[in-house]
Each structure stands twice: as structure tokens, then as C-alpha cells.
Recover the amino acids of this structure.
């Protein structure tokens, strides 16, 4: 990107809101997946091999059908964001999968995004490494390309990075680190304003949707949304006599 305008910042904010919605849908879906693993008693350490097998079956099947969904997403991000041929995938063989799938249209980009979210959920449920952050970035890149196929006037870097930020912040609450990581790793520092807007909108939109067990609703969001600003503060006069009245701020004498 050569530069940003106020309009593009607003576009980034709108994409962040859409990303927040995607993260909320993912949270519900992942909760259902974990519920099924728990229902079949697959979360105990004693049955870890079976848990891993179930997760691997889903991830591998998706990878064989949609090779762009494989692995962590760090090396696949470039292929997805640029809609490059599957032959450019670094760690996949055969790169075309079983049926020669190529992400060359907006609809196929949505397929990649949905399958990637499913793969993320079963990877985490199966107890594998990978986490959420870079896999969400890859998902955001696919959704960004789908959005650009509908609205081609939106810059591709802004669409991909804003979607990635909106989804990731909705789950991890890392509203400041996410745009910095995305923009600097992608070499798109000019997109920072729009991506930051996407992150902040997603943060406030999902502020009361704790996803990780260690997360609690953020008190700073509550203060920001429902702060009671007193524009005419009253300063209590220091005295041991509790019967004296409070003195408005503008009538307090200055001590020189």
C-alpha cells in the first residue's frame, strides 16, 4: 500500500467488526468440538493417543482436500494472501492435494477460510501444537481475498491484515501487538492505521466473550464503555468536622 485515507481506516474498522463476528462463530464451534471430545472422554491424559488420532484424522483429511489449510500458517500465508498456485506451498506434498484444489476465486477463498477454522479447532482439541495466532492470520488472509473479489477497490493488504487482526483479537485480546506483528511481518506499515482500527473494534465488540480459560472480562473495557465522567467535580474540604459542606472545585482557594 502506498498510503491510507480516512475512508480506508473506516473500511479497516468495518472489516474488524466482521472479523469479530467470525471469531464469535469460531468460539461457539470450538466449544461444541471440545464438548464432543469431553462427551467421549477423550480429554484425559490416559487416552491422549486416541485424542490425538481423532484430531489428526480431521486435520489430515482437510489437508488432503484443501492443501492450503495444512500446518501452522506462517509459510502458507504468502500463498493464500497472493492467491498463488498451490505449487508454491512450502511444506505440502503433493501440493495440489488429492483433487488439484486451487484458491483462484473468491468462493474458493471462503472454502479455504472455513476449512482452516475447522482445522484449527481440531488441532487444538487433539492436543497438537500450533495454537491460534498464525492459523488465524492465514484464515484472515483467505477471507480478505474473498472480500477483495467482491469489492476490488479495497487494497488487498488492508483486507487481509484487517481480517486477520479482527479474528485474532476477538480470541486472544492482543489488540496492540496484533497489528504491529501483522504489518511489520508483511512489510505493510502503511496499513497500520486501518489494521489498528480493526483490532480495536474487534476488541470492544468481543470484550465480554472470554474464550481462553485464563481470560476474564477486561475491566478497562468496562471503564471505557461505561465510565461516569464528572465534568463538575467536587473537592471535599479537609476537615475533621463532618458537618461542613463539600466545596465545588471552582470555589476552592488557591494556596500560594
Amino acid at each position: 500500500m502506498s498510503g491510507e485515507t480516512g475512508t480506508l481506516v473506516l473500511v479497516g474498522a468495518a472489516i474488524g467488526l466482521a472479523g469479530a463476528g467470525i471469531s464469535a462463530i469460531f468460539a461457539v464451534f470450538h466449544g461444541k468440538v471440545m464438548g464432543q471430545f469431553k462427551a467421549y472422554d477423550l480429554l484425559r491424559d490416559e487416552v491422549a493417543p486416541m485424542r490425538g488420532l481423532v484430531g489428526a484424522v480431521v486435520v489430515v483429511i482437510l489437508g488432503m482436500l484443501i492443501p492450503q489449510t495444512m500446518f501452522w500458517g506462517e509459510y502458507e500465508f504468502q500463498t493464500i494472501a497472493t492467491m498463488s498456485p498451490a505449487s508454491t506451498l512450502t511444506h505440502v506434498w503433493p501440493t495440489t492435494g488429492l483433487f488439484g484444489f486451487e484458491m483462484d476465486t473468491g468462493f474458493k477463498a471462503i472454502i479455504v477460510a472455513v476449512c482452516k477454522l475447522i482445522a484449527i479447532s481440531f488441532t487444538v482439541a487433539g492436543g497438537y501444537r500450533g495454537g491460534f495466532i498464525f492459523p488465524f492470520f492465514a484464515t484472515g488472509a483467505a477471507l480478505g481475498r474473498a472480500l477483495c473479489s467482491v469489492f476490488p477497490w479495497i487494497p488487498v493488504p488492508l483486507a487481509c491484515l484487517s481480517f486477520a487482526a479482527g479474528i485474532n483479537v476477538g480470541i486472544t485480546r492482543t489488540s496492540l501487538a496484533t497489528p504491529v506483528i501483522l504489518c511489520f511481518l508483511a512489510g505493510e506499515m502503511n496499513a497500520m492505521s486501518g489494521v489498528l482500527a480493526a483490532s480495536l473494534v474487534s476488541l470492544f465488540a468481543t470484550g465480554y466473550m472470554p474464550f481462553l480459560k485464563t481470560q476474564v472480562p477486561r475491566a478497562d473495557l468496562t471503564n471505557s464503555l461505561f465510565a461516569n465522567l464528572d465534568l463538575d467535580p467536587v473537592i471535599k474540604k479537609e476537615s475533621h468536622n463532618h458537618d461542613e459542606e463539600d466545596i465545588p472545585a471552582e470555589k476552592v482557594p488557591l494556596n500560594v
Observations:
- The radius of gyration is 24 Å.
- Strands lie at 234-235, 247-248.
- Residues 170 and 206 are 6 Å apart (CA to CA).
- The chain has a mean pLDDT of 81.
